[in-house]
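Shape is hard to put into words, and the shape of a protein is harder than most. The fold becomes a row of whole numbers, each drawn from a learned catalogue of backbone shapes. The outcome of that step, for a single protein, is printed below.
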Amino acid sequence: MKKNSETHLTRREALAALGAMALTAKLAGAADEAEVCTFKGIALQLYTLREPAKDDLAGTLKKVREMGWEYVQWSGMPNLEAQQIRDALDAAGLTAVSAHIGVEGFETDFENQVAFWKTVGNADVAPGGMMGDCKDSLEAWKRGAARLDAVGAKLREVGMRLSYHNHDWELKTFEGDERSKLDILMAETTPGNLCAELDLAWVKAGGADPAETMLKFKGRCPMIHAKDLTEGKSLLTRRVRFTPLGQGILDWPTIFEAGRQAGVEWYIYEQDNADEKDIFQCAKESYDFLKKSLMG
């Protein structure tokens, strides 16, 4: 009788295989639960086009609509009054679904901030990171979490929703606590008061798995920053190197399946910079990728 040939895996290959099996099992287990999918659409984070918008906001927004985008997140744009923002978006045929803003304005001038963003037309708002005086220690971080929770609770009462946008450093830990800073933030806040606007490229750069992170915060990540990166460092920033969606190292089929199970409503494309391609070309290629992947 002939013996079956043996296959020998390296330790790295074995660990990779086990990791893939574990994620597959997690996805399969989640699929056994009730459907959570609440997908609404795709949007463009306008911070991506901040440089051309400095010189020509109307022309930039016009190009955004011509690419096919209908929805945007307002961020990195010229400083305008609420009605001016709404008029500029209306003129281009665009709708804001979210905005990146500091949370401090809601702490000091809540009613006017709410009125401002309701005029613009978006119900979702998200700071781009933790407040400056709440970063340096675990105690300070928990104070920041309490502040975000309080603002989120007030926003819920007026039909708005607060999220937190991460970078890679929120995947690090404080001394004396094994949890990541992002995990602590989510644990210290009420699910209805604070969501996670997960930036998937920064999650990956921080050493975590984007799909697993989305499932970890199932029901708390309605707005996702869809961002891709490549191996190596950017020639521009000497940090991670961003690329149009689907052209980097993120596993998008697994991400989209996790997003379906986690309850992602919006995939918001963002690209901090472009080393080689024109940024408008990047935005168009990313739109085509999301449309094909998620909207048929």
